[in-house]
Specification:
mainly alpha; two-stranded antiparallel sheet; 61% helix; TPR-like_helical_dom_sf
Length: 508
Amino acid sequence: MFRSESCTDSSGNQPTSWRKDATADQPMLIEDPFTQSTLFTLDFFKRLAKFSLMGVLALGITGWTAFEGLHMWVENVELACDQDSEVRRWEWDHEAEKWSGGDKGGTDIALGFKGRHAVRSAWIAENWGTGSGAIISRSNTFSGRGSQGTGSPDIIEARLEVAQTFMALAISIAESKVSSGKLRPQTMGELLARHASILERMGTRSALLQARPWYERVWVGLPAKGTDAARVALKLGDLDYRLGDFEDALAWWARTISLTQGTQQANLLAPELAQTIPSSPSAQRTLASTLVSLSAYYSTSGHLKQAQHVQESGLDLLRSIPSPSRISTASPPQALHSLFLLHRSSLLSIHLAEVLYALRAAPEHSIQWLTRAAESSERVALALAGLPFTHPDAPGSAIPHPPASEASLVPVYTKSPAMQKPAKSLLRDARRTAAEAWNLMGILREGEKDGAERALECYERALGWAGVAADRSGGIGEPGEGTPEAEWKILWNNYVRVREATRKQMEK
């Protein structure tokens, strides 16, 4: 009988061959390459989506903050009302653009979020542009009353097209809120006036036709008397003149004269000017501009005797308006007012010179009026640029300052919300008027015996005010800011023609 023995080793453990594997009952992890790749890809896209969402949110918040910040800047800075007492004394605040905010500036709160943003967007597009230069649009795009069927396109600045689109949206929103009674009484009129002004600046016939009813709505909503009504009447007169409706233009100009001078016109188709100086500075400027418009109509329509009467009476009236003895001693608003009237008188002087020439008066009479116009316009341009009237190399002499077509507007006007645009426009117009006066003088000098050299000097000065040299070695120049290409070509061709004739004469 065999004895059962304990099959143990010396340590008391069972032999290895008989021992159960300790890991036999535990699951074994099998590392599959395909599984690893799938998990990594899912994790990658999960993190990508997470960071993309965070980036989109951050970008959206940043963009919205920048967008709203831009609109707040326009609301509180660009559309702010000028609070300067001198500006208000000379009533430049009356003529400042109002974008529904009235005397407080900015926009009307009652327009709501969308309406106020539309108004600001219109201002941004008009003043800061849209990034592109021009768009092409059919002439009947706006009102359908343009030159239909012609197929001729109108070239319109993109910024004006975008601005008028936003203004149309703002007006639509304002009309829907009129019944609520929350809008300011002047809001609708201010929006209509701004929209009409943008359409007017487009310059196409279809745009002018649509601007006219807007101005008429503004006129209906204004009191029968006042400088605001006079300015709207002037705009309607100028608009009708551009559209060729001359009888309507005369009627509106007659109303403007009545409102500014406090008189009653017996015949709206034959406006009469009284020697009454308006007490309001704004009314004085409106009357001066009306005289220029009326003078231009009579001069170009063949009514030369009426034109001469308006021009001579208008010059007498403008000269009777008190002005500071020295522009440098006047306050900036007063100086700008005097310079404005001086420029309008220079325009009347040019018209009178042309009418006298057409009436076959001695050319010397026309040259005298053109000389006055050129000197007055140059004084306006130099004063606005902060330059002396005499030559800087000879301050004690009577030598005039050379043309300064590139000089910028003095900071006192660029920093004023109310005076910036009127001063900038006046500087541009004064340069163009000086160039026109010198050019016409050159034409008259050419008719004189041995007048080629004097004519050449006139043309050179006209070019100096109208443009800048492309190079400093006598090459062909370029039109300056505000000078149309067509005007520049006329001036340049006159100069080249006389220059060549003078050279040939010297060679002989």
